[in-house]
Specification:
35% helix
Length: 144
């Protein structure tokens, strides 16, 4: 029984280790990546403000939690987000801007990505912008 407890503890520690983003300690941002990678898109959308905005690359903004859930179910299934490092900057009106760089992996490709989050005073995501950090040649190779 002690062995099972140690295994369970090891798994939890490994899972927490996977969530470490150099320079980022904000729990909302860590939960964003954790819930998205788990495919729990409702939990991801719940991190957004009621009128929060998701700005995906090359697409129109997705506004509101329900729309964000629907979008993620259609577009993010099977993606694995691998955030590496980030920076935090206080901006006006008690908002915080957090930039994170990393990769997105899918069964078909892997691409460098930058995420820009704006958190409100309640630590909800007011806006999340996803930018592909790839050369034009790399982007062309992603076309289906």
């Amino acid at each position: 029984m002690t062995m099972q407890t140690a295994d369970a503890t090891s798994f939890v520690l490994d899972e927490q280790f996977d969530l470490i983003i150099e320079g980022i300690t904000e729990s909302t941002i860590l939960r964003y990546f954790q819930t998205l990678n788990a495919g729990d898109f409702s939990a991801t959308a719940a991190l957004f403000a009621v009128d929060g905005v998701l700005n995906p690359p090359f697409e129109s903004p997705v506004v509101g939690r329900d729309a964000i859930v629907t979008y993620l179910e259609q577009e993010a299934t099977g993606m694995q987000l691998v955030p590496k490092q980030g920076t935090v900057e206080e901006i006006e009106n008690d908002y915080t801007q957090i930039q994170v760089k990393g990769k997105v992996k899918t069964p078909l490709f892997s691409v460098n990505v930058g995420w820009i989050f704006v958190l409100n005073a309640q630590q909800e995501i007011a806006a999340a912008t996803i930018k592909l950090l790839a050369s034009p040649q790399e982007l062309l190779s992603l076309r289906r």
